[in-house]
Amino acid sequence: MAKQYDVLFRLLLLGDSGVGKTCMLRRFTEGEFDPSHISTIGVDFKMKTIEIDGTKVRVQIWDTAGQERYQTITKQYYRRAQGIVFVYDITSEPSFQHIVKWASDVDEFAPDDVQTILVGNKADEETRRQVTKAQGYRLAENYGMEFFETSASTSSNICESFVRVTELVLQAHSRDVDNLLGSLDSYLDKVVLEKEKESQDKDAQRTCAC
Ligand SMILES: Nc1nc2c(ncn2[C@@H]2O[C@H](COP(=O)(O)OP(=O)(O)OP(=O)(O)O)[C@@H](O)[C@H]2O)c(=O)[nH]1
């Protein structure tokens, strides 16, 4: 079957347990929000195809467990990522403070050219806010990252942030997109291929360009 995309990238969601990584991913890939919190075990992933300047980009987005006990497993996925979304919860000061730790892990384990953005999720919870927008911008600026406040609940800025990190990855790899595609394809393991097949039909109907 002919490929339905031009290039494939791997993105990773990182942040403390409960900040809303799974909900953000579900909102982006399925357009749904489930208020229950079932902690991710290890890692999971979903896929979506988006079109950027005429290029069909398939993004494989890995959702990692925020819980400390899974970190040996999740760190193994850092080196495979081209883009990383750091997520904190605007109603949780500790989750914001911990971004420094997540960023330091990425420094240690991810490729040097990995593209990153910072996201403050649960922006709909204004009355429970503990982290100001200005603090978010400042931290992002310190790391040279772009910053978004999102809400998986209302969908605000969800698509925009995933598309932006994908654009950054595409820009960073614009010269070697063909090589990258080849090496990534050969890297896909059995589980990924099976899941890829499963979602082909659904995906065809939800190409997103925000
Ligand atoms: N109000 C509000 N609640 C949210 C939002 N996103 C997620 N939540 C809630 O936050 C809780 C945790 O969300 P998850 O997506 O499971 O969190 P996670 O970061 O994937 O957690 P781990 O898998 O343990 O790392 C759930 O009860 C969600 O309903 C949001 O944008 N707004």
CATH homologous superfamily assignment? P-loop containing nucleotide triphosphate hydrolases
Unreliable parts: none
Alpha-carbon distance between the termini?
27 Å
Supply the number of helical segments. 8
Ligands bound here?
A: guanosine-5'-triphosphate
Broad structural category = alpha/beta
EC number: 3.6.5.2
InterPro entries: P-loop_NTPase (IPR027417), Small_GTP-bd (IPR005225), Small_GTPase (IPR001806), Small_GTPase_Rab (IPR050305)
Subunit structure: The GTP bound form of RAB15 interacts with REP15. Interacts (GTP-bound form) with MICAL1, MICAL3, MICALCL, EHBP1 and EHBP1L1.
Catalytic activity: GTP + H2O = GDP + phosphate + H(+)
Structure notes:
Its EC number is 3.6.5.2. Belongs to the small GTPase superfamily. Rab family. GO terms for molecular function: G protein activity; GTP binding; metal ion binding. The structure is a single chain. By secondary structure, this protein is an alpha/beta fold. It has one domain: 3-Layer(aba) Sandwich (Rossmann fold), CATH 3.40.50. The chain is built from eight helices and six strands. Strands 2-3-1-4-5-6 form a six-stranded mixed sheet, with helices on both faces. Strand 2 and strand 3 (55-64) form a beta hairpin. It is globular and about 45 Å long. Guanosine-5'-triphosphate binds at residues 17-23, 35-37, 39-40, 65-67, 121-122, 124-125, 151-153. Guanosine-5'-triphosphate is lined by residues 17-23, 35-37, 39-40, 65-67, 121-122, 124-125, 151-153.
